[in-house]
Amino acid sequence: MHNTTTAEIANAAARLVVEEGLDWGSAKRRAVRDLGLPGRTALPDNDQVEDAVREYIALFCADTQPGELLALRRLALEWMERLSAFRPHLTGAVWHGTATRLSDIYLQLFCDDCKSAEIALIDHHVDYEPRTVTGFHGESVEALTLGAKCPALQTMVGVHLLVYDLDDLRGALRPDSRGRLPRGDIEAVRRLVQEVAA
Known about the structure:
Elements: H1 2-20, H2 24-34, H3 46-60, H4 65-82, E1 89-91, H5 92-96, E2 105-111, H6 116-123, E3 129-134, E4 140-150, E5 155-165, H7 169-172, H8 186-197
Parallel strand pairs: 2-5
Antiparallel strand pairs: 1-2, 3-4, 4-5
Helix pairs in contact: 1-2, 1-3, 4-8
Protein name: Nucleotidyltransferase domain-containing protein
């Protein structure tokens, strides 16, 4: 029963992620509500949701998603090149290949001085919204959120810059539970973009 319920939640969450652009945590919580399940129902883990998202994309978005993903990776690369002084790494759906036109871009910056990225945005007259989010070690990190035009998708895309200390880069490239790199630097993203172009 438990496995059936978590699979049902994962599938409902996957639809919300792809169709409405929800982040995985929000999608899981809303899926529980939409399915009329008790609030304390056990949730699927992120790997299970990711599998469901990939299945959903393969079934319903196979003709559009690859182009949307490429457009988002190109936009991410553009911002990574602009912010190259802060050792940017791409993470999230755009890095892992599950992004659609509704997905945001998540860049992790590893800075000598955590205020330097913010100062660079101010110097370049980039409007952004600062807030605090939970980082990949469970600590609080500053996130600078801005909107970027994506001409290929004819839409504005949310770009989230998560500002880490340079020391955090040491543990950042350990493979995840599936043996994949959880984030990629400029060269890795450039390769992803060039592979498709080739």
